[in-house]
Amino acid sequence: MMLFMLLFSRQGKLRLQKWYMAYPDKVKKKITRELITTILARKPKMCSFLEWKDCKIVYKRYASLYFCCAIEQNDNELLTLEVIHRYVELLDKYFGSVCELDIIFNFEKAYFILDELLIGGEMQETSKKNVLKAIASQDLLQEDETPQGFFEDHGLG
Amino acid sequence: MAPVRGDGMRGLAVFISDIRNCKSKEAEIKRINKELANIRSKFKGDKTLDGYQKKKYVCKLLFIFLLGHDIDFGHMEAVNLLSSNKYSEKQIGYLFISVLVNTNSDLIKLIIQSIKNDLQSRNPVHVNLALQCIANIGSRDMAEAFTNEIPKLLVSGDTMDVVKQSAALCLLRLFRTCPEIIPGGEWTSRIIHLLNDQHMGVVTAATSLIDALVKKNPEEYKGCVNLAVSRLSRIVTASYTDLQDYTYYFVPAPWLSVKLLRLLQNYNPVTEEPGVRARLNETLETILNKAQEPPKSKKVQHSNAKNAVLFEAINLIIHSDSEPNLLVRACNQLGQFLSNRETNLRYLALESMCHLATSEFSHDEVKKHQEVVILSMKMEKDVSVRQQAVDLLYAMCDRSNAEEIVQEMLNYLETADYSIREEMVLKVAILAEKYASDFTWYVDVILNLIRIAGDYVSEEVWYRVIQIVINREEVQGYAAKTVFEALQAPACHENMVKVGGYILGEFGNLIAGDSRSAPLIQFKLLHSKYHLCSPMTRALLLSTYIKFINLFPEIRTNIQEVFRQHSNLRSADAELQQRASEYLQLSIVASADVLATVLEEMPSFPERESSILAVLKKKKPGRVPENEIKESRSPLPIGQQQNAQTNHKTSNNTNADLLGLNTPPSGANNTTTSTLIDVLGDIYSGTNNTANAAVSNSKKFIFKNNGILFENDLIQIGVKSEFRQNLGRLGLFYGNKTQVPLQNFSPKLRWAPENAVKLNVQIKPIEPTLEAGAQIQQLLTAECIEDYPDSPSIDIEFRYNGAPQKISVKLPLTINKFFEPTEMNAESFFARWKNLGGEQQRAQKVFKAQVPLDLPGARNKLLGFGMQLLDGIDPNPDNMVCAGIIHTQTQQVGCLLRLEPNRQAQMFRLTIRSSKESVTLEVCNLLADQF
């Protein structure tokens, strides 16, 4: 089971966090800080896995973003790399050549997509087509709704 | 600005841009505070906000929270959004709740209500949103609220596939919080049959759930094995086009394959049906074969997915440990990966090989790769890979390659990363001891360790080398010579001084004949290090010096001079000062005889398992590779195996204390154990070294119920007990004899499971802190179900001044406690005695009496044993006979005893007769050698 997933930039800014275990906020912040420092200090050719506390960390860098997952001792490291890759593919397909900015400005979408891929830290749907279909049907529901608030929205809103 | 999709919230995008444009942290905080004030006023304002605005503000709050700021309002507005009839608003509401969940009970009720409504929706998108929220929060309240709905959704024929998938994982999440929510009975088979579902996504999700359920209840879910094997076999033999979208970079359903392979690892043996077993082996072979095929794509995704399945298959092969052919093939495959250009693969191959090294079928196969592994240890660029190589070398080491591997590890230590040195030192020390055929080699290795990595040599390591040297006469001279040479180095590590000081103090005389290491030279050499050392080492050296006075009377004046110097204010340290003065006085006033007795050579230590292993295990719980080849697995159900393992562990631990200082050593020589570090005690190393001739009296308690069970310098343990029929009640009294509280005080019962079913012992928990000078009581109850051998022990662990202590004491709960004395006359005694004449009803032992033969003492003991001592029955007045009934829950066992002393031979003959063979033996064993 995946314990959590963190997305952070090369500058060490956290872009997305998803926790599948109930940690107190303080602990979350501490873990995040420690992991970002540890991973940013690693060199490019190094192994993507590391032992960390009582779990394993699997991470991979895509352009300016690091994707980092914590998994349990018995979980499969290689396949976790591919969970990350599948998520990146989904973001890429949805946003069209995804970049860090997309995730910053549409963080809620990034969450929705992740929720379709993983539930409770386990793979829910591995088919790219099916996940995209689910997201599309969500978007379809939104578009049925009348867009409003456009005028109020100018200025600071 | 980045493009915004769907019904993008412009206000949000503007806000995010503002934040990104902030030049400083202060500016960012200012902007955020402004926004928070704005949102607060909107939420508080009179104007009712419409859904869109609520959504936008809630989303901004969420963004602020994700930036790392605390959010203490907006929860109510988010909950309102849940009941919006606009999907996008509902969705943001759910997201906020999921991220910022607060177990604020009022809100939870409202949230649960909204979720209930959405679960009823006909639109699967709504249902899934609700399920995702439950899984994200996964609290106990949720588990209780949805016990019924979710299992129904999961197995109902009407549920859409997408919903089933979410329901399976949602249920898994709730099961993890609250294991009792899973319905049993007919549900079991319906859940198992999800493995046959048409939809691969449903099977994938369901497999995760089943895996968790199996872990809790392997028997009930055993039916899943056949289904999993056949599903796996179908996937593995499918062509990549068959599974369409579930093929990932030309690998058919890698996620599902890995999950199924994991699921099967819950059983050992995986299956007892030959057909299923054959199919599984065939499947595993296919996976191994595919690894040899040329890749279908150059992409790393292809190779990762393919190898993920391969590694999981190898895990299953290792787990089963029953197919030599597959184990050897797995090993060859991993051997190929050792030189792969992907660092990740090399890392995983080294890790996986560690497990193969412990199987008797593949151990030799792993050894073939020794050269490559040594190269990995030296050449890998990534320390985590080097660490794996060290682990593997440790696991593959045996008598045949120990010298080479130890030498390579020593060589590498000189340049090894700081982060892995300490662990490597422990490993080298363990291997050197375990596989030493010649202990001079062992001594060399440890001294090399101290020379190369002195800072990383923990106390346990140097204690151990001293223990071994003291116990093995054949290396003492060599050890003395070698430390003497090592100390010649201009700069040598303080640990070397400690070992050198200790060994020369004991065995310096063995090399004193050589003029190059004459007594005075030894002394001067040691003393030249004195001023560079810490007080603890200095104290040890002072003890060495006093020992020298005994070994080499000719240098007494030189040594007394040193004591004199340090016995006054020049020694800033009070302990050193005191020690020096006391040693000085001792050397002046004591006669040669007294000195020789006081400063005698240390007695041998009881042989015990190396404590270093325990340190290694503690350092890296769960991931220290074994250096022990397992017998091929016996087909035990998994539960029993775990039991067997835990037993093994506990029994290891009891042997694991350092030098026998913390627990009373078992066996007869417990009073002769003295401290290693220093005959006269050493305040520096805390209680590990306080001379505590611990007294354990457990044997006496066969004959009595109350008294002091154990006592040392730190603690006294008393016991009071009473027994009636097959029931017993014990009070243990722990008294803290020290001036500080004993922390983490935890007594644990140790009683083999096979006996625990015969004697059921319950122990009441107690407070973890035992205050200074205080006494606390712990109650135990015992119920004798059936007769049993031996008696349970209690393992007591605590911390004294931070140093862990461990004591193990046998409890006075031997089978004789359940005796009821029985009166009878000579006639009926002999009638019964004759009746119990069968082979299995008699047991006899002849043993030497404790000198001098003490008949009244023996009578007293028998009186306390629990049987009735019958006088005037045996014609020989010296003989003693007894009768009693043992009460167990299942039966009552009559038992007769006769004890015949032989004054000339100073022997006893003990005869026991009873109606049950096991009782006869147990009682006989208890009493043998007791008189």
UniProtKB/TrEMBL annotation, chain A:
<feature type="domain" description="AP complex mu/sigma subunit">
    <location>
        <begin position="1"/>
        <end position="140"/>
    </location>
</feature>
<dbReference type="GO" id="GO:0030121">
    <property type="term" value="C:AP-1 adaptor complex"/>
</dbReference>
<dbReference type="GO" id="GO:0006886">
    <property type="term" value="P:intracellular protein transport"/>
</dbReference>
<dbReference type="InterPro" id="IPR016635">
    <property type="entry name" value="AP_complex_ssu"/>
</dbReference>
<keyword id="KW-0968">Cytoplasmic vesicle</keyword>
<dbReference type="InterPro" id="IPR044733">
    <property type="entry name" value="AP1_sigma"/>
</dbReference>
<dbReference type="InterPro" id="IPR011012">
    <property type="entry name" value="Longin-like_dom_sf"/>
</dbReference>
<keyword id="KW-0813">Transport</keyword>
<dbReference type="GO" id="GO:0035615">
    <property type="term" value="F:clathrin adaptor activity"/>
</dbReference>
<keyword id="KW-0168">Coated pit</keyword>
<dbReference type="InterPro" id="IPR000804">
    <property type="entry name" value="Clathrin_sm-chain_CS"/>
</dbReference>
<keyword id="KW-0653">Protein transport</keyword>
<comment type="similarity">
    <text>Belongs to the adaptor complexes small subunit family.</text>
</comment>
<dbReference type="Pfam" id="PF01217">
    <property type="entry name" value="Clat_adaptor_s"/>
</dbReference>
<protein>
    <recommendedName>
        <fullName>AP complex subunit sigma</fullName>
    </recommendedName>
</protein>
<dbReference type="GO" id="GO:0005905">
    <property type="term" value="C:clathrin-coated pit"/>
</dbReference>
<keyword id="KW-0472">Membrane</keyword>
<comment type="subunit">
    <text>Adaptor protein complex 1 (AP-1) is a heterotetramer composed of two large adaptins (gamma-type subunit AP1G1 and beta-type subunit AP1B1), a medium adaptin (mu-type subunit AP1M1 or AP1M2) and a small adaptin (sigma-type subunit AP1S1 or AP1S2 or AP1S3).</text>
</comment>
<dbReference type="InterPro" id="IPR022775">
    <property type="entry name" value="AP_mu_sigma_su"/>
</dbReference>
<keyword id="KW-0333">Golgi apparatus</keyword>
UniProtKB/TrEMBL annotation, chain B:
<comment type="function">
    <text>Adaptins are components of the adapter complexes which link clathrin to receptors in coated vesicles.</text>
</comment>
<dbReference type="InterPro" id="IPR013041">
    <property type="entry name" value="Clathrin_app_Ig-like_sf"/>
</dbReference>
<dbReference type="InterPro" id="IPR016024">
    <property type="entry name" value="ARM-type_fold"/>
</dbReference>
<feature type="binding site">
    <location>
        <position position="52"/>
    </location>
    <ligand>
        <name>a 1,2-diacyl-sn-glycero-3-phospho-(1D-myo-inositol-3,4,5-trisphosphate)</name>
    </ligand>
</feature>
<keyword id="KW-0168">Coated pit</keyword>
<dbReference type="Pfam" id="PF01602">
    <property type="entry name" value="Adaptin_N"/>
</dbReference>
<dbReference type="Pfam" id="PF02883">
    <property type="entry name" value="Alpha_adaptinC2"/>
</dbReference>
<dbReference type="InterPro" id="IPR009028">
    <property type="entry name" value="Coatomer/calthrin_app_sub_C"/>
</dbReference>
<dbReference type="InterPro" id="IPR008152">
    <property type="entry name" value="Clathrin_a/b/g-adaptin_app_Ig"/>
</dbReference>
<feature type="compositionally biased region" description="Polar residues">
    <location>
        <begin position="639"/>
        <end position="655"/>
    </location>
</feature>
<keyword id="KW-1003">Cell membrane</keyword>
<dbReference type="GO" id="GO:0030122">
    <property type="term" value="C:AP-2 adaptor complex"/>
</dbReference>
<dbReference type="InterPro" id="IPR050840">
    <property type="entry name" value="Adaptor_Complx_Large_Subunit"/>
</dbReference>
<dbReference type="GO" id="GO:0006886">
    <property type="term" value="P:intracellular protein transport"/>
</dbReference>
<protein>
    <recommendedName>
        <fullName>AP-2 complex subunit alpha</fullName>
    </recommendedName>
</protein>
<dbReference type="InterPro" id="IPR003164">
    <property type="entry name" value="Clathrin_a-adaptin_app_sub_C"/>
</dbReference>
<dbReference type="InterPro" id="IPR002553">
    <property type="entry name" value="Clathrin/coatomer_adapt-like_N"/>
</dbReference>
<dbReference type="GO" id="GO:0035615">
    <property type="term" value="F:clathrin adaptor activity"/>
</dbReference>
<comment type="subunit">
    <text>Adaptor protein complex 2 (AP-2) is a heterotetramer composed of two large adaptins (alpha-type and beta-type subunits), a medium adaptin (mu-type subunit) and a small adaptin (sigma-type subunit).</text>
</comment>
<feature type="binding site">
    <location>
        <begin position="10"/>
        <end position="11"/>
    </location>
    <ligand>
        <name>a 1,2-diacyl-sn-glycero-3-phospho-(1D-myo-inositol-3,4,5-trisphosphate)</name>
    </ligand>
</feature>
<dbReference type="Pfam" id="PF02296">
    <property type="entry name" value="Alpha_adaptin_C"/>
</dbReference>
<keyword id="KW-0472">Membrane</keyword>
